[in-house]
């Protein structure tokens, strides 16, 4: 330790003798870095900010259904957008179409009924099968009372033992009954629905035609019940509203005694 002090003193003396002053330090091990301290970035290297990757947004899918609304008769429902819909009586359009009611047919069955809309299943929906057409028809009758409306599906079939039941459409109970009839080489399965709301009888006629084929025909049998279930979704999607009353149809409000003064 004494020798070390002498060496430092000698170095100072030699520095003064040369006309300059130099400080000689002791170089040892680096001091340990304290915990929690950060290392400074290297000089000359630019620090890039973190880039946020864009979040992929799902592409909006085009709706597969369309909505039909008739404010005059207070009925709205959804149906497949690839199914053609015709509005009105359609006597000239449907007179040659098998299994569809015309306005004349409807009036002969129940006077006062109005055919509102007809939805047809495209003919090529089930290729190479025995499918022979399908449809949903909507009618409204303002003159059929509630009791007659609820009983109409069963009384129309004329068969008390026909399959029947009840479903709820927009909070309204609808009676339904099944029937079938043949026409040429086609058999039509039909389910009629009827429900009373807003002082009207709402009716839906769902039909599916199946062609009768020979053993030599290369056609696959179609699942008639499955198609009927798909068409029933049009019925259950319905909303029933009271008829909109315009300002011209409203009764004038009588003036009060205060208003007359």
Describe what you observe in this structure.
By secondary structure, this protein is an alpha+beta fold. The chain has a domain at 65-240: Protein Transport Mog1p, Chain A (3-Layer(aba) Sandwich). The chain is 21% helix and 30% strand. The chain is built from six helices and ten strands; from the N terminus they run αβββααββαββββαβα. β7 (172-183) and β8 (186-197) form a beta hairpin. The longest helix has 16 residues, at 2-17.
Annotation keywords:
single chain; 261 residues; alpha+beta; Protein Transport Mog1p, Chain A; three-stranded antiparallel beta sheet; 6 helices; 30% strand
Q: What does the secondary structure layout of this molecule look like, with pairings?
A:
Blueprint: H1 2-17, E1 65-70, E2 75-80, E3 85-87, H2 91-94, H3 103-109, E4 113-120, E5 131-141, H4 146-157, E6 164-169, E7 172-183, E8 186-197, E9 200-211, H5 224-236, E10 239-240, H6 257-260
The count of β-strands is 10
Helix content: 10-25%
CATH T-level topology of the domain at 65-240: Protein Transport Mog1p, Chain A
On the 0 to 100 scale, the average pLDDT is 77
By oligomeric state, this entry counts as single chain
Report the end-to-end length measured between terminal Cα atoms: 122 Å
């Amino acid at each position: 330790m004494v020798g070390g002090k002498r060496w430092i003193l000698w170095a100072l003396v030699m520095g003064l003798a040369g006309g300059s002053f130099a400080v000689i330090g002791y170089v040892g091990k680096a001091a340990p870095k304290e915990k929690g301290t950060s290392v400074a970035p290297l000089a000359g290297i630019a620090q890039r900010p973190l880039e946020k990757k864009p979040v992929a947004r799902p592409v909006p899918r085009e709706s597969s259904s369309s909505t039909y609304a008739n404010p005059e008769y207070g009925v709205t429902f959804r149906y497949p957008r690839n199914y053609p819909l015709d509005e009105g009586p359609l006597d000239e359009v449907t007179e040659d179409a098998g299994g569809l009611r015309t306005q004349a047919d409807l009036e002969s069955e129940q006077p006062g009924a109005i055919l509102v809309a007809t939805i047809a299943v495209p003919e090529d929906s089930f290729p190479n099968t025995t499918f022979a057409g399908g449809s949903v028809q909507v009618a409204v009758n303002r003159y059929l009372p509630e009791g007659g409306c609820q009983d109409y599906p069963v009384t129309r079939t004329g068969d008390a033992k026909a399959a029947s039941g009840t479903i709820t459409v927009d909070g309204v109970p609808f009676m339904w009954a099944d029937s079938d009839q043949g026409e040429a080489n086609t058999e039509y399965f039909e389910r009629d629905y009827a429900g009373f709301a807003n002082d009207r009888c709402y009716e839906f006629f769902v039909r599916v035609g199946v062609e009768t084929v020979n053993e030599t025909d290369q056609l696959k049998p179609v699942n008639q019940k499955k198609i009927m279930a798909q068409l029933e979704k049009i019925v259950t999607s319905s909303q029933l509203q009271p008829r909109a009353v315009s300002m011209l149809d409203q009764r004038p409000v009588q003036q009060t005694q205060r208003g007359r003064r």
